Amino acid sequence: MSYTIMTDTSANLPEEFLRENKIKCIAYTFMIDGKEPENFHFEGKAFYDDMRRGKIVTTSQISPQRYSDFFREELEQGHDVLFISMSSGISGSFNSASIAAADLREEFPDRKLRLVDALGASLGEGLLALWAVRYREFGMSVDAAAERLLDRRYGMCQVFTVDDLRYLKRGGRLSNLAAAVGTVLQIKPLLKGNNEGKIVCFEKVRGRKRSIEAMAEKFNQFALELPGQTIGIAHADCEDDVNYLISLLRQHRSELDIMTVMYEPVTGSHVGPGTLALFFEGSKDFR
Length: 287
Known about the structure:
The protein is an alpha/beta fold. The chain has helices at 15-20, 44-52, 64-76, 93-107, 123-138, 142-152, 166-171, 177-180, 208-222, 239-250, 265-271; strands at residues 4-8, 23-26, 29-32, 57-60, 81-85, 113-117, 156-161, 187-193, 199-206, 230-235, 257-262, 276-281. The protein folds into 2 domains: 4-30 and 60-154, 3-Layer(aba) Sandwich (Rossmann fold); 155-286, Hypothetical Protein Tm841, Chain: A,domain 3.
């Protein structure tokens, strides 16, 4: 069965991957020091070095009208749509998409438009889009695929650490701020996405290296050995830490399929330079 899979740039999926798997992507907008960049070409290190030097990156949610235009193009061509969205727990964009979808369902009663709130961001969202592609290849209907993803998202474990909490504080993305403050003496927070798709601090450890080791320990404790599982790692310009994390993960499971990406500007601006995140399917108890 054929339908169009759509997502947003928060999913952190490489352009080549999107093209090869016929996924359409709507872009979030952002400004640097109050100005929308023209002819912007993302170069990760330069972007995060600018943030380290004090440049302020701000973002805005996608409007219902932009979503309407985005979905309409496919519906007018007679295609059903499966859209995987950034978490409603950290952005109002899913609500905007829902408003647009409600109107479009009345306008296109013969078409199916299914929305999936990923309850995550970056590859916590992107890996669900990867499964959507596989479901489509397996011949699963758009409704069946959506229902499967709505259940599967609760097993998408997302654990990460940041160099500086000010970026999450500034954007209001950290739900239990009191639990994460006090990062003096090299105390590093371990953060996760919870069942509401919000970012919470659930543990603190001493030092950057120990925080990476703790992420690998969570993987060993909670990850499921599922056929076809892809592990995700996203980072904001910390390649050495990525390599260290991969080496720890492969100590126990040497044949892991790992997708590594750099945080794109919108999600990256909220977590900040030096962020390292791990995404895997595991026990629903983790969230």
